[in-house]
């Protein structure tokens, strides 16, 4: 494990946002959704997320998640991802979202 210092951690913009739209992403190599997330003052950003095993599109809308918003944009198939959806792999390698357990304002930074 690499040890980082506090200044390194402060560079990561982990922000809370609310999922406002979810669509299928059939062009992705692995099953995924396209998600649009409202990050408050940072605006709405889109990303792909390999979360189809544990979540339906309907149950994701309105859910708050954590995203890394200061990575460069990344093209995935024919789609431009603007942030990284955070999650953890379960025992089968399927992704479970990292999320907050109580509502907080969109755009709040993890501190």
Automatic annotation (TrEMBL):
Q: Does the keyword RNA-binding apply?
A: yes
The protein in question is named tRNA-binding protein
Cite the entry's keywords alphabetically. Answer: RNA-binding, tRNA-binding
NCBIfam families, from UniProt? chap_CsaA (TIGR02222), PRK10089.1-2 (NF007493), PRK10089.1-3 (NF007494), PRK10089.1-4 (NF007495)
Taxonomy of the source species = Bacteria, Pseudomonadati, Bacteroidota, Sphingobacteriia, Sphingobacteriales
Occurrences of domain TRNA-binding (ranges):
8-111
Any GO MF annotation of the entry: tRNA binding
- PANTHER family with a match to the protein in the record: TRNA-AMINOACYLATION COFACTOR ARC1 FAMILY MEMBER, TRNA-BINDING DOMAIN-CONTAINING PROTEIN
The record ties this protein, via SUPFAM superfamilies, to: Nucleic acid-binding proteins (SSF50249)
Q: Could you tell me which Pfam families the record lists for this protein?
A: tRNA_bind
**Which CDD domains does the UniProt record give?**
tRNA_bind_CsaA (cd02798)
């Amino acid at each position: 494990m690499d040890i980082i210092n506090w200044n390194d951690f402060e560079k990561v913009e982990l922000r809370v946002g609310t999922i406002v739209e979810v669509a299928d992403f059939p062009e992705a190599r692995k099953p995924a959704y396209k998600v649009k997330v409202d990050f408050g003052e940072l605006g709405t950003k889109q990303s792909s997320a390999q979360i189809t095993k544990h979540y339906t599109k309907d149950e994701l809308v309105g859910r708050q998640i954590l995203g890394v918003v200061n990575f460069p944009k990344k093209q995935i198939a024919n789609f431009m991802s603007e942030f990284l959806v955070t999650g953890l792999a379960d025992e089968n390698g399927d992704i479970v979202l990292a999320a907050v357990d109580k509502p907080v304002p969109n755009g709040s930074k993890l501190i």
